Amino acid sequence: MTEPDAVSGVDGAAKQAGRGANEEGEGTIRRVTEPDAVSGVDGAAKQAGRGANEEGEGTIRRVTEAKHHEVRQTTTRTITLEVTRYRPGQDSAPVLESFDVPLMDDWAVLDGLNYIKDQLDGTLSFRWSCRMGICGSCGMNVNGEPRLTCGTFFTEFGDGPIRIEPLKGFPIIRDLVVEVDDFLDKLRHVKPWLIREGEELPLTTEHAQTPAQLEAYKQYSMCINCMLCYSACPVYVLDPDFLGPAAIALAQRYELDSRDMGDRFDMLNLDEAVWGCTFVGECTKVCPKHVDPAEAIQRYKVTAAMRSILPWSRR
Amino acid sequence: MTTAYRPPRDHAWFLRNRNYTVFVARELTSVFVAWAIVFLMIVIDAVLNGGDPAAFAGQPWVIALNVVALAATTFHAVTFLNLAPTATVIRLDGYRLPAWMIQGGNHSAWLLISAVIAYFVLRTP
């Protein structure tokens, strides 16, 4: 998610915005043959001009008519998506906008958003990339719960409506796009990489591990940095100084790795780090990769307490 | 980037999600744990100074408060002991002890200690 291409086409959207505005007049048909990742921030900002002309200030608009889509030939059922819209410079606060999209059994919420983007309102901005629960880009609040929208299917919600909001706890840049700088800073802070000391060994050197050594940290290595745990954590939402579940879980992942020689005690044994956690446990419940950050934090509390009692001991 | 919208603090956050509400309820039961300690100290003080602890403990409002405190502290203790396996990873010959074994051990120890205390407190002199 730290890669530029994971932020769905920021620059690409800028280019496509102009094209979309020029090609799409009222009632014209725009054929979209494949999903293009144009859910960009800057691009959407350029599209904002067109959006502003079409939409009244502060209104909740209901979009029911698709200009054209092949899906409409196979289904007549629809489901309403209530989507947060926020256009910086235009809106003083986010508002909800309703869109009716085809209710397809095999559609995820992300498919619905892409339908809106492609067919109903090209100015809608959101992040997505892999569509298979790997990249961690498409995390949003779905009916109040942090979810990966690529893995959240319409069939869960009956006839709807489904409310889609940006992840709670983060500043909103535009629509469903949140600012992740704070999270990335926290992630860097815990040095989530193997720290080695002493002589630098050749790149061909193997660092063999036993199955037990692998098992000790494997669970925590599954984190995809989707930030759902931050959005679910009331401590982080109320106090953004809290280091947060994913960063601590990843720190613990390397602390438990037999190949790592670093010591993250000073960055974890703090009120803003493990001791700030009140063990609500929601981070673990919402984690799509079953990482169990709550466990990582509580285990490090025991480690930190033991090291405080027995200062000569290490992890 | 500077125009990002920062939502205001949600003062009713614990009402937005059932798990948040249960969490806050669990935390609030700490107040009754504190009361149980205060009550114990009052009773011990009465015993040591030749007073009648029953005179204080037998008042209707103390009885009512202690009934609520018993329920709250039991809820607090059960939920606390059930969370213990999350912080405690015990491996026996490479096999990680399942959560129910740690929870079972905690609850068994709790009941045993309670029974021993009850024996000494309730026995006829």
UniProtKB/TrEMBL annotation, chain B:
Entry keyword set: Cell membrane, Membrane, Transmembrane, Transmembrane helix
SUPFAM superfamilies reported in the protein's UniProt record: Fumarate reductase respiratory complex transmembrane subunits
Annotated Gene Ontology cellular component terms: membrane
Membrane-spanning segments: 28-48, 60-84, 104-122
Keyword presence, Membrane: yes
InterPro entries referenced in this protein's UniProt entry, alphabetically: Fumarate_red_C, SQR/QFR_C/D
Nucleotide-binding found in the keyword field: no
Protein name: Fumarate reductase subunit C
Organism: Nonomuraea endophytica
UniProt lineage: Bacteria, Bacillati, Actinomycetota, Actinomycetes, Streptosporangiales
